[in-house]
Amino acid sequence: MSINFKLDELMIIESARNIRDGETVFVGTGMPMVAALYAQKTHAPNMCFVVETGPISPLVLPVPISVSDPKAMHRAVKLGTLREVLGCLLQRGMVDVGFLGGAQIDQFGNINSTTLGDYQRPKVRFPGSGGANDIASHAKRILIISRHEKRRFPEKCDYVTSPGYINGGNGRKEAGLKNSYPDITVVTDLAVMSVDKGTGKLQVKKLMPGVTLDKVQENTGFSITAIPNPAAVDFPTDEDLRILRQDVDPDGEYLGKED
Amino acid sequence: MSKVVTMKEAIAEYIKDGQSILISAFSINQGYAFAHEIIRQKKKNLTLIRSSGDILADQMIGAGCVGKVISPYVWNPTGPSSAYCFRRAMEKGIPHKVELEEFSFGAFCMAIYAAAHGLPFMPTYPLEGTGIFQHRSILGEDKVRVIESPFSGEKVCLVKPLIPEVCLVHVQRADAEGNAQMWGPLGDVRGTANAGKRIIVSAEEIVDQAIILKEPYKTIVPGFRVAAVVHEPWGAHPSDVFEHYYRDIWFQAGYAEASKTVEGFQKFMDEWVYGVENRAEYLKKLGTKKQEELRWRGQDNGKFHSL
């Protein structure tokens, strides 16, 4: 066990712990790539990485800066097409975990990666869905990673790019999504939250070391509850941190340079 | 019959102001030579259809060629950074307002599939409850419609075919009749290259038909579907072409930095687009040393990419 780590690092490690060895994981751009790569290099060497550009089961090189980076194509068993990975794998229900980031995540686990502010006259324009909407619609479980800030966790997303529970417990079912009640887990640098399948709302399940529920609430734009006695996230080991820093993100592309 | 023309001729003859065009390929084989010639010829008010907009769309938007965009995603994949011209257009109307219709990749693929197969529509999974369903611009009510499946009774969304007037696709090789071959990661090319009413091909190499016939399974579109063929080596730089050259991520990162401001973007375009007559001059400017660095050296392609 190490105490010499940043919460950003533990956020990546903790999110990776949600991936089980042998699972098929559809990985979105940014932080999910780092965490999935970490999982592949630690407890889940047999995970099958899938990326929307078409690669299936690549041995990902550290560290792709986007889903179209050739590092995410390295030694893939197939360099498929968009339609094959989005249709034949994801939509068909063959993907265990959909791993995403986003600009906003709301109380129902919906994700916004499109616009901030008014849609017609946006304050900030982001890239848009890409495969994110498909991933959140069809993966068996949805895993989301994000830094925890009030502006990133509003009550309602300015634009719902990728569906969580949409507007409540039966939101997905009413919209007609086949996978109506998936597990949704959100891992941040303050807490781990998951959707309560009755209400469709995010609930705190675990807290990062040294973080209180009050601090989570302070940094969340909606009223958030916790399960009784939320557990503490396990500390990383020295080896976990070595792998993350040296093998996964050696140049500090995502985690910043070491002091 | 040879359909080989210069890029200048192809764009002048086949791309008209106000048309809908699709530039094929997702991250690989991007038709930059097409885009740059369209920009040089100052085409206006085009509807640009792209699976992933990328820098290519960003440059066309910044140059004022595009009035409408239909795409699930527009950004600069290397940097990584925003597509700044796209952002300026959407946030501030610079250089002018651009109408955007956005899809998920899945729904977009189905709309392209419908176009490529001559179908009246394609079903896709439900999109209700998302912004993609609620916000409609160019296609209005026809963007997505909902029906009950006549087979299972479940809710299904329908998308109509996205049929561009002209489809532009860059491939590894073609013969003079337009039989065009591409291999490696195909991204969206199988669908998008076939969606257009008219297809223009640019190719790294123009080869004898005997070479095409040796590996017919690499043919993406048959020659009789193709209106014109352009011989354009390095026509996809700074994107990559499988077994020809790697992606120039340094160039893409440089563009990201330059395009942060209108002035920086203008300077970049003056240098790399307006300041050169054609792709051959662009290549001369890129230099042989850079070309050697980027030239394909084997399949472990990820290894040769590092900022």
Describe this structure in words.
- By secondary structure, chain A is an alpha/beta fold.
- Chain A is built from 7 helices and 14 strands.
- In chain A, 23% of the residues lie in helices and 20% in strands.
- In chain A, a hairpin with a 5-residue loop joins strand 6 and strand 7.
- The longest helix of chain A is centred in the first third of the chain and has 11 residues.
- The radius of gyration of chain A is 17 Å and the shape is globular.
- The chains are: A alpha/beta (259), B alpha/beta (307).
- Chains A and B meet through helix 3, strand 9, helix 4 and helix 5 of A and helix 4, helix 5 and helix 7 of B.
Distance between the termini of chain A: 21 Å
Structural class of the secondary elements of chain B?
alpha/beta
CATH C-level class of chain B is Alpha Beta
What is the name of the CATH architecture of chain A?
3-Layer(aba) Sandwich
Alpha-carbon distance between the two ends of chain B = 45 Å
* Quantity of strands of chain A, as a count: 14
Could you say which overall geometry of chain B the principal axes of the C-alpha atoms support? globular
Oligomer: heterodimer
**Average pLDDT of chain A:** 94
Number of spatially distinct domains of chain B: 1
CATH architecture of chain B: 3-Layer(aba) Sandwich
> What's the CATH topology name of chain B?
Glutaconate Coenzyme A-transferase
Largest sheet of chain A: 8 strands, mixed
* Radius of gyration of chain A using CA atoms only: 17 Å
Structural class of chain A: alpha/beta
Order of helices and strands of chain B: EHEHEHEHEHEHEEEEHEHEEHHHH
Query: What does the largest sheet of chain B look like?
Result: 10 strands, mixed
Strand content of chain B: 15-25%
Uncertain stretches of 5 or more adjacent residues of chain B? none
Query: Helical region count of chain A?
Result: 7
Helices and strands in order:
The complex is a heterodimer of chains A (259) and B (307).
Chain A: H1 7-16, E1 24-27, H2 31-41, E2 48-50, E3 55-56, E4 78-79, H3 82-91, E5 97-100, E6 104-105, E7 111-112, E8 115-116, E9 124-125, H4 132-138, E10 141-145, H5 171-175, E11 183-187, E12 191-195, E13 202-207, H6 213-218, E14 225-232, H7 238-248
Parallel strand pairs in A: 1-2, 1-5, 5-10, 10-11, 13-14
Antiparallel strand pairs in A: 3-4, 6-7, 8-9, 11-12, 12-13
Helix pairs in contact in A: 1-2, 2-7
Chain B: E1 4-5, H1 7-14, E2 20-23, H2 32-40, E3 46-49, H3 54-62, E4 66-70, H4 84-92, E5 99-101, H5 105-116, E6 122-124, H6 131-134, E7 145-148, E8 155-159, E9 166-174, E10 180-181, H7 189-195, E11 198-206, H8 209-214, E12 219-221, E13 226-231, H9 249-258, H10 262-274, H11 279-286, H12 288-294
Parallel strand pairs in B: 1-13, 2-3, 2-9, 3-4, 4-5, 9-11, 11-13
Antiparallel strand pairs in B: 6-8, 7-8, 9-10, 10-12
Helix pairs in contact in B: 1-2, 2-3, 3-4, 5-7
